[in-house]
């Protein structure tokens, strides 16, 4: 039996290039929001709502986060409408609100259905409308890498040291219905690709002045309602990471968390080589004053009310040293403030971290430390440094007043056990509850309180 709705999204993809010429900017934003939600609902209905324990429920805190499994419950009963039909009609209705586009969608859909029926049980060739839905996510960045001077986006910045510079990177993130039928931030662009590769990819990079960076940030902000703070999330990468990989990770984290604020990246000049651990450590130390200047600029000049910081691995050295020596509460009146500061798998001397973290917790809305006893990368770092790392769990786990320590040791965190902040759905779910809702560990799923001589920490249960 032919599933005619299979070709609805390819039909949308055929019409999509005509949208910018047919609508105003405000109309296009409204159409993108409606179409994206409807297509996600259609994909979920055709494939079945995610079951408990998948990203649709656990990955973003289920009913509270993205209501990924709620759609199935909402269709109970014999008289319930067909969710596939409802979603398809929602797609059509969005286009019909703009008559030329509605007619074009009907024509494209009919042509694809005719072609699909002509192939019968065999799969039609890719030319009949393979299309992948994706979102173009803008990431505002600052870096003290030197421009590489090469061609192509991946060669924009290398591992050499430079001065502080700003810009915007566009990252193409494949859209997944498991993120839930939720609206995207209005400045994310909806796109369709015929390339079957589903990898997240770095697109155009636009260098900006400091003033241009602030202006771009102002332009991306949703209008404030006086109650919801205008927020940004800056990601600081770790050792052995290229600029391109860092930008992709920043966009992917914002997408996975359905972060409705402004994604940002601070990229220090990692050599992006396993053999350059010492060089990366020196580069991270050198980046501290540049990162401080970046923080001052974001908090005072961009209109951001609240800035969340997520650091990974060696990137925590940049964040810890910078915030320990910068009092963001002393910035001029009207400046933004630190929201959640998240230290994930920090490759920082544990004793140094204990000494410096009190200076940080007093200026942030909350501070969270993620640790693991199975982090092989930090185990190797400990051998080199001859001292425990702050991201290691076990008898010497860091517990401090004002700091929520979360032990992920019971989770399957992969071969190295080091990349869990962006790869493990339970950790992403926990970050979702923290960054989207400001939930304390006692309010987040799957965590149990563990007594400790210095107070208590939290641990994921097996």
UniProtKB/TrEMBL annotation:
Gene3D superfamilies: alpha/beta hydrolase (3.40.50.1820). It comes from the Bacteria. The keyword RNA-binding does not apply. Residues 46-57 have a biased composition (Low complexity). The keyword Iron-sulfur does not apply. One of its GO terms (molecular function) is hydrolase activity. Residues 46-81 are annotated as: Disordered. Pfam families: DUF900. Keywords: Hydrolase. InterPro entries: AB_hydrolase_fold, DUF900_hydrolase. PANTHER family: ABC TRANSMEMBRANE TYPE-1 DOMAIN-CONTAINING PROTEIN (PTHR36513), TRANSMEMBRANE PROTEIN (PTHR36513:SF1). This is Alpha/beta hydrolase. It comes from Kitasatospora xanthocidica.
């Amino acid at each position: 039996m032919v599933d005619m709705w299979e070709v609805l999204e390819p039909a949308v993809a055929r019409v999509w290039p005509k949208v910018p010429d047919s609508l105003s900017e405000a109309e296009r934003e409204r159409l993108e929001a409606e179409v994206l939600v409807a297509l996600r609902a259609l994909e979920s209905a055709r494939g079945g709502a995610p079951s408990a324990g998948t990203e649709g429920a656990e990955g973003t805190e289920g009913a509270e986060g993205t209501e990924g499994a709620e759609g199935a419950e909402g269709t109970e009963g014999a008289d319930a409408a067909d969710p596939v039909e409802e979603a398809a009609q929602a797609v059509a209705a969005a286009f019909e609100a703009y008559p030329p586009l509605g007619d074009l969608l009907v024509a494209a859909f009919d042509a694809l259905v005719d072609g699909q029926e002509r192939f019968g049980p065999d799969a039609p060739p890719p030319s009949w409308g393979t299309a992948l839905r994706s979102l173009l996510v803008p990431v505002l960045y600052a870096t003290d890498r030197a421009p590489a001077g090469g061609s192509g986006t991946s060669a924009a910045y290398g591992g050499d040291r430079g001065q502080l510079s700003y810009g915007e990177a566009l990252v193409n993130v494949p859209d997944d219905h498991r993120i839930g039928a939720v609206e995207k931030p209005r400045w994310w662009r909806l796109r369709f690709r015929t390339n079957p590769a589903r990898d997240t990819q770095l697109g155009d990079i636009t260098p900006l002045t400091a003033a241009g960076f602030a202006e771009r940030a102002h332009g991306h902000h949703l209008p404030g309602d006086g109650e919801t703070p205008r927020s940004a999330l800056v990601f600081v990468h770790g050792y052995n990471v290229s600029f391109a990989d860092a930008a992709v990770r920043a966009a992917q984290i914002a997408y996975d968390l359905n972060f409705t604020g402004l994604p940002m990246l601070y990229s220090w000049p990692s050599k992006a080589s396993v053999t350059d651990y010492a060089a990366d450590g020196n580069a991270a130390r050198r980046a501290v004053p540049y990162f401080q200047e970046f923080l001052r600029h974001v908090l005072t000049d961009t209109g951001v009310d609240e800035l969340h910081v997520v650091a990974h691995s060696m990137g925590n050295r940049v964040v810890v040293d910078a915030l320990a020596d910068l009092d963001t509460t002393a910035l001029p009146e009207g400046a933004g403030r630190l929201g959640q500061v998240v230290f994930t798998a920090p490759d920082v001397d544990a004793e140094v971290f204990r000494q410096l973290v009190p200076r940080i917790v007093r200026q942030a809305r909350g501070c969270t430390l993620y640790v693991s006893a199975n982090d092989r990368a930090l185990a190797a770092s400990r051998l080199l440094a001859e001292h425990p790392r702050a991201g290691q769990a076990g008898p010497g786990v860091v517990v401090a007043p004002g700091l929520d320590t979360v032990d992920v040791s019971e989770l399957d965190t992969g071969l190295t056990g080091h990349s869990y902040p962006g790869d493990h759905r339970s950790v992403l779910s926990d970050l979702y509850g923290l960054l989207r809702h400001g939930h304390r560990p006692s309010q987040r799923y799957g965590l149990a309180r563990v007594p400790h001589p210095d107070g208590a920490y939290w641990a994921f249960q097996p």
